[in-house]
Amino acid sequence: MSYLEWGDPRNREVLVCVHGLTRTGHDFDEVARALCGQFRVVCPDVAGRGDSERLPDPMLYGIPQYVGDMVTLIARLDVEGVSWLGTSMGGLIGMALAAQAASPVKRLALNDAGPLVTRVSLERIASYVGKTPTFATLQDAEQYVRSVSAPFGPHSDAQWRFLAQTWLRRNDDGTWRAAYDPRIAQAFSADKDLELWGLYDAVHCPTLVLRGERSDLLTRETVAEMTRRGPRAKVVEIRGVGHAPTLLHADQIAIVREFFLQGLSA
């Protein structure tokens, strides 16, 4: 598993940032720049994404495998505890890890992720996951990213270009492809809501939830329940955004920065 690392490698305060289903660790570049003075920031490419190797059996692409990989990563970092920021799938991985007995997760930020993932959002994701067209130019790829990632909300041209470039790898013939194993779709199910309340209720660390105002994955009803049970999460809603906030905007970064810095002063 490949990962990016920011800040002082001797810093015992570690922030692990984990991306969504088809993205890469580069999604947290701006967050890492903002927090690497206080934290050693580690941004892995989950198995089958980015620069990480693909799994031999596509049916292993799931939360249990990813949690095991993250346990190994934390052991490699040689720290007893970490703070965790996860977008969508990365949030579910963090929630599953935080639910374990003697979990290393000290603070948990869930970016548009929660213990109930709606079927409608899973169906939307299933409509494009695993379908990896080849693009003749970066411009063509960027237009595709703008289309499938429209729920991310408004972004500058430079930000859309960044979201496209970090999602791509170049083929030998000069064309471009998505930087993930399309076989992840084989283990992806959109048949019904995904319910993980048992995991959420087992989380005891301070928890923050960022919700896109227009999210079809994390409903207001689910978020309201998350404030009443389990770790009783603090919730911040991001206006004008669906699934999921990209954490490229200064106001979004400021929310997670404040949450994690509270852990340093606690």
Proportion in helices = 25-40%
Query: Gap between N and C termini, in Å?
Result: 32 Å
* CA gyration radius, whole angstroms: 17 Å
The number of helices is 9
**Helix-strand pattern:** EEHEHEHEEHHHEEEHEHEH
For the biggest β-sheet, the strand order reads 1-3-2-4-5-10-11
> How confident overall, as mean pLDDT?
95
Defining traits:
266 residues, alpha/beta, two-stranded antiparallel sheet, 11 strands, globular
Q: Could you explain how this protein is built, in words?
A:
The chain is α/β, with parallel strands linked by helices and 266 residues long. 33% of the residues lie in helices and 18% in strands. It is built from nine helices and eleven strands. It has helices at residues 29-35, 63-77, 89-98, 119-126, 138-148, 157-165, 197-201, 220-226, 250-265; strands at 3-6, 14-18, 40-44, 82-87, 105-111, 116-117, 168-170, 176-178, 194-195, 207-212, 234-238. Helix 2 (63-77) crosses helix 3. The radius of gyration is 17 Å and the shape is globular.
